[in-house]
Amino acid sequence: MEYQIGQRWVSHADAQLGLGVVVEIEPRRVTVNFPAVGEERTYAIDGAPLTRLRFQEGDHISTVNGVELVVGRVEEHQGLLLYTGLDHHDNELTVSELELDAYVQLTTPQQRLLNGHFDKNEDFALRVATFEHIDRQQRSPVAGLMGSRTSLLPHQVYIANEVGQRFAPRVLLADEVGLGKTIEAGMIMHQQLLSGRASRVLVLVPDTLLHQWLVEMLRRFNLHFALFDAERLAELPVDNPFEAEQLVLCSTSLFHAQPDFREQVLAAPWDLVVVDEAHHLAWSEDAPSDDYQLVEALAERSAGLLLLTATPEQVGQASHFARLRLLDPSRFHDLETFASEEQQYRRWSDMASQIEAGDIPDDLPAGLDRDAAPEQLIAQILDRHGTGRVLFRNTRAAVSGFPRRILHRHPLPFPEEYRYSSTDLESRLHPERPYHDDSWLGFDPRVNWLEQTLKQLRPAKVLVICASATTAVALEHHLHLRAGIRSAAFYEGLSIIERDRAAAYFADEVNGAQTLVCSEIGSEGRNFQFAHHLILFDLPLNPDLLEQRIGRLDRIGQQQDVEIHVPYLEGGAQQTLLDWYARGLDAFNESCSAGHMIYQRFRERLEQQLNAPDEHLEELLNDTAEFTLDTRRELREGRDRLLERNSCKPEQAEALIASIREHENTDVLQNYLEALCEAFGVDTEFHSEQALILRPSEHMLTGHFPYLREEGTTVTFDRDKGLAREDMAFLTWEHPMLVEAMDMVHSTELGNAAIGTIKLKGVAPGTMMLECLYTVNCVAPKELQVERFLPLSPTRLLVDARGKDLAHLVPHERLNSLVERVKKPVALAIIKQVQKEVDAKMLLATRQAEARLEEVLKEAEATMRTQLGAERERLAALKAVNPSIRQEELDHLDYRIEECAVHIRHASLQLQALRLILTT
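Structure tokens predicted for RNA polymerase-associated protein RapA:
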């Protein structure tokens, strides 16, 4: 092509120069001015690294005066190109290439290819693979469930899937101690955030659990929460600090002394509020606590609400009702009505058992089909009756994987020094309490027993729990300073960071403490299942606290039997309480979810025996044991069993887990990551099987690769290894490193234009083919989840010289193995010769892709209406018989169906990658 003054050319040697204009032509040289950078370059005409810029119909162009056009027609007049098109006001304008803005960016595959800006074939293959992987993740039925660093436990996966897919979920997670409510909440939040159903989350927890939640959310779910305390809030230079972060973690006590903080947190918009240890929210009809009123106000303003408690009813029916009232005040508006409804739960449970046994009862509720399959009838009963949609509770009896509990009683002589100091019940159970110094350490036989027992158990880790911080500190000092035992203390007088350091010192396998001495706060929320010896230096009067203590070790994932050691002073209140727990509640052998209720029933008689045991003690123990047995039987046969059915459906859970395992496919993931690293200049090094070390290099394509540390990052693709090795990042398709790196490929031009040659028998040399990759471009709010019905849907075409599609004959993988690179000077010469042919083939390819798009959009809308319509019909039918269905859910489905339809119809085709292939 001949040069002419005023023509616009681009440098394929340096794309940063922008758009150049020919300003001088000599017999053997051409001078081009690049206004964008204020430079002028002179090139030899024969070897100039320049390509004539020619926009195509449909391209967007800008002029130096800021006018933007969509090109409709291209003409040439006296060697210069004239572009005619429509501006923003649909006015037709014609501009010369002389008027084009110099700050041009060639990003579309066709623009880059025809202007000599192309990438390696490996980058082209990476781009194609990226869109295929994204499409597969969008289609996955377990999207949002794959990215957590957790064991795939059926009850947790089921709840996360059931709740995480809801619009603005409002539920009470009430699994028994040790079943992983925090993990369930994390999985739900992770899914809600990934899907776009939520973007702003507030988590409220007790002070003692702040850092545990912070670390757990980061380590297991890669969720970066901002930890807010009074100091942090005072430093933020904004009107409302709660609006400065998307994910906020704080304690309820933060709002006690600062009314301003309360107003600010209520003024901030939240998509989801999560409250841990919700049984601490004290409520009565006349005097709800400040914490309850705060959560109630947040619940009114937030669409979603998750409440977590291991004790849904034990604190009392009124307290249980109060928490359900937070979730849905219109549904749970009256305590008496709720109490009468609860009487029906036994009936529904009995009915479900009867149906399961093959006997269809005569008194089926209205609207149920007697001829339906037993599984369907039971599902309908669960759907329509009870609190199954708002309350999830799995019991340890129904979930396997727990260790045995073994009680070791250690009777010790009652010291004379305690005979007269133990006058009230508190000092009878904790006789060291009246002492204002540490003198009791010298004569309390439990102290010497503790020292000797720890030495005997060495090197095994041992958790010691006692009621008060004063006792814990005194014991730890004694063990550390006098007995030479590596120990740490964990109590409320420490700062959160100090507590975390103590817990980390205890967890360290090599140089850590043998024992951690905790006050009562160590029995709530913390997990120490790497240890299996528990010493209860004293016993709490509340059975729920005892269960919380044991639950620090007795959890899913515990590999050994839990050895529970209880030293006690003979003949006193400690022995009586131990007997009541062991023989009356059987609390050391198995969890008792109704412990507090049983305690309330026998409280008066128990306290009489604790103060002055007499001949009626045996009667108390027998009566408690009999009542406990009956209560456990009622819970198994009544509400707990009904809830159990709805809280985990094993077949569905196993199907979800199988799908997660299938999508993990570690070999595919590892191969893709290695290709990503190769493209971006990140060094990879073999670490071990299914594990790599990633390090930044001096040749990185960009200055940043997501989640890659300066010193390097070790990653594993194996879930078991990821759980065992805290020092490794566990990579899944939903890990932020993969998600953000794939987005870097998606949102840039990397690999979107390439050129290569291929040898094919029977095909004449010089034959041109175009490999085109199209995707569906649907611009829609993330929360609609249109991609669930209309994913990227990559469409690959391989157009030959006649415009015929050969994609089905020559798969992409096969083509990649055959294609060879072309040296750049040769490639540039080829491109100059075939520009018109490329334009013609692109037109044919686009028409074929657009014809396929019509079918894709029709199928997507039909699928959307079928799936969401069925969900809407089911909820509408249930709402007639179960008031737990909120009108907001139905309204949102109606809105979502119509909005999805609009966005699907307006979806368009987008060319993502283009490769020119010539046969040799």
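The chain is about 40% helix and 20% strand.
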